[in-house]
Fold this sequence. Notes:
Keywords: Amino-acid transport, Cell membrane, Membrane, Transmembrane, Transmembrane helix, Transport. The protein has about 450 residues and is an all-alpha fold.
Amino acid sequence: MAQEKKKMSVVQLTIITAINMMGSGIIMLPTNLAEVGTMSILSWLVTALGAMALAYAFSRAGMYTSKGGGMGGYAEYSFGKAGAFLANYTYGASLVIANAAIAISAVGYAAVLFGADLNPLEVALWTIFTLWLATILNFGGARITGRISTFTVWGVIIPVIAISILGWFWFSGTRYINAWNPYHFSFFKGIGKSISITLWAFLGLESASANMDSVENPKKNVPIAVLGGTIGAAIMYILSTNIMAGIVPNQALLHSNAPFGLAFSTMFTPAIGNIVMALMILSCFGSLLGWQFTIAEVFRSSAHEKYFPKIFSKVIGNGTPLVGMLIITACQSLLALMTISPSLSKQFTILVNLAVVTNVIPYLLSMASLKTMQLEENVPKAKQRKTNLIATIAAIYSLYALYTAGSVALMGGSIVTFAGWILYGFISHRFDARKALN
């Protein structure tokens, strides 16, 4: 009975699920969405439906699977060890890329807060500094990192909720309508141009079912919480970004490196805008801190499964995968230099699209494996049909997200993926050779 009382209710799990998605990914979204105009709300609706389909499918996979390893374990049902490796590898790569984008967000807000006019090289160098600072602070171990990240996430959530509620008092319907399609995109091009950036906001939904052992009646409550959390996050995303578009002129948003700070300065005073920017920098850095440790843990667990080199499994006394962190941060530093762009927003967009492309690969592998998973785990046929239908919808949306990411991101993601096949060739004998090799 004592253990039952400690378990989360469906409401608590729903809130946690929404908060996990509403991290620092949103803070640069208004600037990127301004490239399309307020018709990007249609992209939000498409992505919200796609994200809910993905979230539901992952919640079922989490309950049905008897294999560990998250998406790698899901992929193994249909694609064997090669598929498991590719899912783990592309997921790890997407996290490495995504954290570089988060670091750029922090640099953008800090530059505006302190009145610094950074050129593209300076943006890259400050991004590298931010990444290394987060890595160094992680040397203290997971416990300290977890406490900091849990606290700092509210630096984003509070302003997002505040503008969603209070922003209506400054909202101009005329400004919003005038910004509907300022760059005269066709209907489908306008929707497609924002799909990858809106999906970026939902990345991490695959981890929503990770707490299934800690919730009451998981078979019933996990799908409810996953869908509820995704809907809740979608509402906050759609409200905050669209209300902002009715407060701040499109051109001002388009050229801002700190859109939420700009919005609160417009609503209240520059001092309030500065406070919001400081909160978001704090939140962004806290998120960066937590994810740098999480990425190293993903690589460490993959190394234990013999997918990644042994060097990633090495830890220091407090359990920190120090060597792995250093290698990962070095790769992120190189990535920051390779993606130098004319503007901070442009560099952020390049990294976001690349992160989305690499993250969609394990999504597709997982969705494609659900049918085999359910057959092997003896799931009743009635339940199979519903899950397979939703997984198919999720897969179609994922393919559409790949298509809309653009040729540059697709080419970069393809190179990363193909490099993974080469890497698997070096270790495949551990799983696939019929005779043990000495």
